[in-house]
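Hi F.,

I've been meaning to write this up properly since the lab meeting, where we talked about keeping a consistent format for the predictions we share between groups. The idea is simple: the sequence comes first, exactly as it goes in, then the structure tokens exactly as they come out, then a line or two of notes. No screenshots and no reformatting. I'm using this chain as the first example so we have something concrete to point to.
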Amino acid sequence: MKKYIFNTVKFAGVFLAAAIILSSCDTWIDTEVNVNPDAPADVPMNLMLPAIQQNVGFTLGGNDMVLTTDNWMQQFDGVSRQSYTISRYQYQPADVNNLWSTIYSGILINSKILIDKAENTEGAYSPYNAGIGKVLMATTLGVSTDLFGDMPYSDALKGDENVLTPKFDTQEQVYTALQGLLDGAIADFGKPTTENLVAVKSDVMYAGNVAKWKKAAYSIKARHLLQLSAVKGNAAYTEALAAVANGFSSTADDMMVPWEEANHNPIFQFMEQRTDVRMGATLVNLMKSIEDPRIPFYVAKDGNGEYTGSVIGSQNENASKPGPYIAGATASSMIMSYAELKFIEAEANFKLNKSTEASDALKKAVGASILRVTGTAMTDDWYNAKIASQTLSMELIMTQKYIATFGTCQAFADYRRVGLPVMTVHPGAVLPAMPTRYPYAQDEISYNGANVPGIVSINDKLWWDK
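Output, unedited:
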């Protein structure tokens, strides 16, 4: 037993020696020895901005958002493994853990830090960087709340304060917050400044063009003002049109995140690594029916040299894969387009019984999409024969918008709002109808469960989905 008994004198001596060493270590140990020069504690704005933008592109334009929602909207079709499971509406809280984490840690928190640095750093007041940060935050909030509904926001971006258990703001509150962010950004872009624009010009989306960012802010406003049409009625259309008037004026204003050989498009990466998605027959057949010039850019040829889509439930692995516009290695991820803005204008005018204005906006919307996708202007002959020959209706407007917004989450948002174009429920579905929302992340349920709103299923409706 003696070997387990401490010699108290020796132990006291060791303790004293350790205390002396620890108390004087700053006199002989280099205090910078544990500082990683590749992970600075204070990242300058010109390095923060492009990193946030790349996260926006990868998150809002990638697997967890676009491939899932476009799968449900039958623009894609999951033909095997997890993608087939998703196509059947089997989507669980664990499936969105990475997405939920990236929304907050990769975009919202970093955008808040960028805004704070731009507004509060002594001697470096930078309203343009602040404005860009607000647009990126609002854009991400808008797309995210349209998937999840209520979300942590007012409690979620406070750093060390309440970081583990933030309350959930209602979707109505999130919508108010994102419109406030956009209003703040618009004000920032109008402020005179003598700031050094080096940070702003690290902007990979608009190369520091403040006028384009201001148009982007108005365009995102229009998107989410229209999304409240079931809540606000005609007021939503009127307010959306007011924002449209100050939004994008051509495809040159499109809000996109570029990719390069060293950093590939997220859909390209998915298809390179997974390949369990094909083009959906619903979209492909619709485009074939009007001899759409975008087909070669949306759809790759199959093994027989044809453009084919997989019928939902068929698990047709021989159908066409996504084409170069959507899944090219360096294809940009579309965040908000001039085409989408003109579709907003077309719908709002149609609902306000302004048929002439609606028809004009619809033609510009389709033309803008074709120009963006193909690089060639739309011909009047094609438009008159294939589109203008049809009766102007909500179905026509929303069907054309469905085609034009492929590669974004917007078709899913529009479908829940207006129910167009009509979709057929997957024959092997595990739910009685198409999903109307995402589940909350399992990590959030596990660690902040007391605040997570209860949902019965992903068929539960969001606040604006009346």
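Notes:
The two ends are 77 Å apart (CA to CA).
Strands lie at 76-78, 255-257, 277-279, 333-336.

If this format works for you, I'll send the rest the same way.

G.
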